[in-house]
């Protein structure tokens, strides 16, 4: 998986989802470098704008992006870009997704509709993605079949369970995405 010059290949992965779903947590849990985050404190003003239902203890929010890196093996390094979750910061998504091979859309089953915008965004741009149900403290309100029905995603789109705090669970989500992106590319190329 080296390019023609023998350099390791890299892939850009986007981590998206609704406000407070665990995007920064995921990038931080899996990154082998100290992640770059653009966290800003939630203020009284933002509390009036943002729905804090289900994330009442949240004190900061991503305003631009989160960035991390993970070397999967000697031939593939992933660069992780977490998107901001609030609607007013979505204008950055178009820039973040440029060159991405795929995306992980995190979902909190306590607030499932928060991921619709991310799913629509990647579907409209034909970016391969997987849906990762972020199991907070083992909280599992719905099984993957029910989530698939509710989201109405393509049957080929993987839906997995994940704890965004767990390095192993995040690694599994990334490997699932890389495999899905490869399969999608092969199908597109007709082979």
Automatic annotation (TrEMBL):
Keywords: ATP-binding, GTP-binding, Hydrolase, Nucleotide-binding. SUPFAM superfamilies: P-loop containing nucleoside triphosphate hydrolases (SSF52540). GO terms for molecular function: ATP binding; GTP binding; hydrolase activity. InterPro entries: Gliding_Motility_GTPase, Gpn, P-loop_NTPase. The keyword GTP-binding applies. Belongs to the GPN-loop GTPase family. This is ATP-binding protein. It comes from Kibdelosporangium aridum.
């Amino acid at each position: 998986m080296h390019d023609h010059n023998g350099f390791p290949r890299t892939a850009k992965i986007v981590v998206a989802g609704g406000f407070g779903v665990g995007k920064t947590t995921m990038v931080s849990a899996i990154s082998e470098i100290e992640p770059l985050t653009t966290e800003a404190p939630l203020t009284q003003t933002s509390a009036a704008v943002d729905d804090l239902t289900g994330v009442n203890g949240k004190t900061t929010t991503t305003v631009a992006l989160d960035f991390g890196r993970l070397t999967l093996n000697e031939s593939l390094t992933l660069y992780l870009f977490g998107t901001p979750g609030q609607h007013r910061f979505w204008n950055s998504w178009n820039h973040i997704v440029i060159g991405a091979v795929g995306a992980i859309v995190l979902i909190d089953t306590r607030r499932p509709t928060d991921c619709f915008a991310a799913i629509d965004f990647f579907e409209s741009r034909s970016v391969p993605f997987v849906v990762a149900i972020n199991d907070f403290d083992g909280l599992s309100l719905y099984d993957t079949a029910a989530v698939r029905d509710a989201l109405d995603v393509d049957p080929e789109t993987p839906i997995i369970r994940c704890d965004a705090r767990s390095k192993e669970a995040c690694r599994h989500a990334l490997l699932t995405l890389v495999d899905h992106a490869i399969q999608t590319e092969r199908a597109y190329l007709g082979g």
